[in-house]
Design a protein that fits this description.
single chain, alpha/beta, Rossmann fold, 2 domains, six-stranded mixed beta sheet, four-stranded antiparallel beta sheet, 9 helices, binds adenosine-5'-triphosphate
Length: about 260
């Protein structure tokens, strides 16, 4: 049986005043695909994520999620229906512990956000606490459960952020440069974590390093000045003359 189409972009454009940031992009993403989204600075990658996540509205064109046009759906509803994103910069509550950060996500998912979470609520929300602990254990991060996020290394913080996105039970996970600013060891940890995500989770990841995309992504999509200029396997994209031209022959390390 054919895999369902998770995301479909049809002639999608975004203008900021006279500036065309995304121009007439059409593409389909099927369930379970792992896509690397690359392109030089200002190519429109984050803007595309912003539109898919519902943080900004397209100027024209449509975004469909499992066949339903979601242009008018607010971002929080998109999150609830399974479109979960991470940001270029950490979006964690630095003064809270890892467990507390995770509880905020779980609470929102279980519709318990109307009651503010506090330590004393452990008795009332023991199932949420257990769930948070299980998630941290499952992903090998249990040792950080009671650490304040601000005291953790940047690499661990980014891992926690991905775990929190996963806790949101995404069907489509949008990762915005999850390895930016990381050492090789930290990058390997993040990629290891991403590769362990359930196969059914569809991923689009903005990434700057082709080496990271190779072996981890099925498909690479290239944006340049708001246009989709290449879409294929990492190998095809790496050998694409237009892509090579844009990156001036630096086909091994393509910067986002
Ligand atoms: N709210 C906005 N108003 C005006 N221009 C914007 C806005 N958001 C983005 N832009 C412009 O749109 C273009 C694309 O930006 P975007 O952040 O999507 O690119 P990017 O490919 O993610 O770049 P980078 O790799 O540097 O993050 C840039 O020229 C940027 O200045």
């Amino acid at each position: 049986m054919d895999k369902p189409i998770v995301l479909s972009l049809n002639n999608l454009s975004k203008y900021f005043g006279g500036l065309k940031v995304i121009e007439d992009i059409s593409m389909e993403v099927v369930a379970g695909e792992r896509i690397g989204l690359i392109g030089p600075n200002g190519a429109g990658k984050t803007t595309l994520f912003n539109m898919i996540a519902g943080d900004i509205k397209p100027t024209s064109g449509t975004i469909s999620f499992f066949g339903e046009v979601i242009n008018r759906m607010p971002n929080y509803k998109r999150t609830k229906s399974g479109i979960v994103r991470t940001f270029q910069k950490n979006n964690l509550m630095m003064g809270l512990t890892v467990q507390e950060n995770l509880l905020l996500v779980l609470q929102r998912m279980r519709n318990k956000h109307v009651q503010w979470w506090k330590r004393a609520n452990k008795k009332n929300y023991s199932s949420l606490f257990t769930e948070a602990e299980n998630i941290l254990y499952e992903w090998g991060l249990a040792e950080y459960s009671n650490s304040k996020v601000q005291n953790l290394s940047y690499g661990v913080q980014r891992q926690i952020e991905i775990i929190m996105a996963i806790a949101g039970e995404p069907k489509l996970l949008l990762l915005d440069e999850p390895t930016a600013g990381m050492s090789q060891v930290e990058t390997d940890q993040i990629i290891g974590l991403i590769s362990k995500l359930p196969k059914g989770v569809t991923i689009i990841m903005i990434e700057h390093d082709m080496d990271v995309l190779f072996g981890n992504m099925d498909r690479v999509v290239v944006l340049h000045t708001g246009k989709l200029i290449a879409d294929g396997s990492p190998e095809e994209v790496r050998n694409n003359p237009e892509v090579k031209e844009i990156y001036m022959g630096k086909e091994d390390v393509i910067h986002a």
